[in-house]
Amino acid sequence: MAALLSVSHLKKYFPITAGFLGRRVGEVKAVDDVSFAIPEGKTFALVGESGSGKTTVGKTVIRLIRPTAGDIIFDGTNLSKFKERDLKPWRRQMQIVFQDPTSSLNPRRRVADIIATPLEVHGIGTARERLARVKELLELVELPDKYLYSYPHALSGGQKQRVAIARALALNPRFVVLDEPTSALDVSVQAKILALLARLQKELGLTYLLISHDLSVVKNFSDHIAVMYLGKLMEMAPTQELFANPLHPYTRALLSAIPVVIDEELEMIPERITLEGEIPSPVNAPKGCVFHTRCYARMDVCSLQEPQQWEPAPGHYVWCHLFAVGGDAPT
Ligand SMILES: Nc1ncnc2c1ncn2[C@@H]1O[C@H](COP(=O)(O)OP(=O)(O)O)[C@@H](O)[C@H]1O
Ligand SMILES: [Mg+2]
């Protein structure tokens, strides 16, 4: 299937300024040369620790922020350099759901007004038509009509996230960025919201970019996974392939944090890998491989040279020196 969204060599550097005149003293390399493609109707997951640049990728690909460099091809059109005026018709097709519905919903507006906002902004329908659409959307996200005129504080976390999802769907988008859509919710609610998102995807033919810090959340939900660290991709593969054959030491560390059910049939229990230290600052990212300072498999070359892309299986990419030499996976 053709890619609905294709991103190549995307960079987003935030300037660091100082003093009264805002002199530029450095930059935060939040996203540093990232490429991937999402086929229409599929879910592409972006996984990594906090601070790795996931949200910045999500906001940049829907052009909430302007990229420093790179191409963002949506349905065949390169949006990377578009100005706000040119973006307007595209805005309807690309939406985002944020992590924390308590801060993404205006506490002083009622549910009906919140969900109708995108329709108003785009000047769609009469007040009456908009209300009918809001009711339709409430039904779509399985929220009873009685909440139409409630304020967000009267809703549970899961219900608030349903309102945020309804708002994101108001304009019938084709592509939705889901930025940690369940991580602010209770565990029991998380599965329900994920099930809702899966049903909506199927019914409406949506394409998702799902952002998460947790591989176990994306395991049963995504078609492809990219593992990100300090602004760069470490590994990218179809979901089954990534879980069956994780290669990058960082991917393996993330996987080992997932609790496993131990049964007798299981020949190998994944080793428990604990990464030492915190993710370094993207202002002064480590030279060579950005992950080398925390890598348990590092070699001399890792602090000197940035690893090249290696494709161990079709569609499976890894950026790690362990594989550059002989092409053999580490044991
Ligand atoms: N508007 C901004 N200005 C300056 N730095 C930013 C801005 N937004 C994000 N950053 C920095 O970019 C890096 C990546 O942030 P983010 O994309 O939010 O990561 P993640 O979503 O993976 O936690 C962080 O170091 C963060 O502090
Ligand atoms: Mg984030």
Detailed description of the structure:
The chain is of the alpha/beta class and 331 residues long. It has a single domain, classed as Rossmann fold (3-Layer(aba) Sandwich), CATH 3.40.50.300. 29% of the residues lie in helices and 25% in strands. The chain contains 10 helices and 12 strands. It has helices at residues 54-61, 84-91, 101-104, 111-121, 127-140, 157-169, 187-204, 215-219, 239-244, 249-256; strands at 3-18, 23-39, 43-47, 69-74, 77-78, 94-97, 175-179, 207-212, 224-229, 232-238, 309-313, 316-319. The strands form 2 sheets. The chain has an 8-stranded mixed beta sheet, sandwiched between helices. The protein has a 4-stranded antiparallel beta sheet with strand order 2-1-4-5. A hairpin with a 2-residue loop joins β11 and β12. α4 (111-121) crosses α5 (127-140). The longest helix has 18 residues, at 187-204. It starts with a strand and ends in a 12-residue tail after the last strand. The mean pLDDT is 92. Adenosine-5'-diphosphate (ADP) binds at residues 14, 28, 30, 48, 50-56, 282.
